[in-house]
Amino acid sequence: MIQQIDEIPLSTAGKRRSYRENIRNDIREAIDKRIEKFEFLGDYNWKYLQSYAKEEADRIWIDTWYDIMREARVKHGLSGYMVPDYHDKGKYIKISSVKMDDRIHVYCQIDFDAPQQICGRLIEELIAQKEAREWAIENKDLGAHIGEVGLSTRAFTCLSRAGYKTVGDLEGKTATDLIKIRNMGRKSVEEIVGLMRRFGLEVEAND
Q1: How far is CA 202 from CA 158, 168, 180, 194, in A?
Q2: Tens digit of pLDDT for each residue in 164-190?
Q3: Is 203:174 a contact under the CB 8 Å cutoff?
Q4: Which of the four, 28, 104, 178, 204, has the lowest number of CB atoms within 10 Å?
Q5: What span, in angstroms and rounded, lies between the C-alpha atoms of 188 and 130?
Q6: 179, 181, 185, 186: CA torsion to nearest 10
Q7: What is the pTM of this model?
Q8: Above pLDDT 90, what percent of the chain?
Q9: Phi, psi (degrees; rounded to nearest 5) at 205
């Protein structure tokens, strides 16, 4: 059971026999009701309460940013790496404990605006990257970096390790040249050839 509080920490009372799912349900209840500060009351084992609460906070953090980023991916047509800094979860839910004479008091503080703020910065960066990529393709900018033109991770990694930095570095290369690059597969070659053609680079038709 949870109780909303104005300041933390506060003392608690009641028997302390714990079940992990009860703790998780309490934190979910706080999230659903948008309670910013609350304390645990009732039938909990305080020895494990803080660790269980942290586990649930981590799960909620992951679920929250995933929902935000998934919505942004659909809304803005984004792709690529979309995981905010995991360590920023501390700005979302803070779980602390205070040792008292007969117990350890565990309390939680939730910042409901943090996930959107954290994810918002990444979303803005991805939108800017998408716009820059579209501009580079539209204007056939051969100086565009290969890491900023929408290549898959494998295709980019293979090219980067082989010394390719810009789209212009691909000029004059054939599919045969590309397939010889270490760890390069047929699908990656097809992807790169398609990119080259979008930038106006000719690739031998029979290659």
Answers
A1: 21, 12, 19, 10
A2: 999 999 998 988 899 999 999 999 999
A3: yes
A4: 204
A5: 20
A6: -20
A7: 0.59
A8: 14
A9: -65, -35
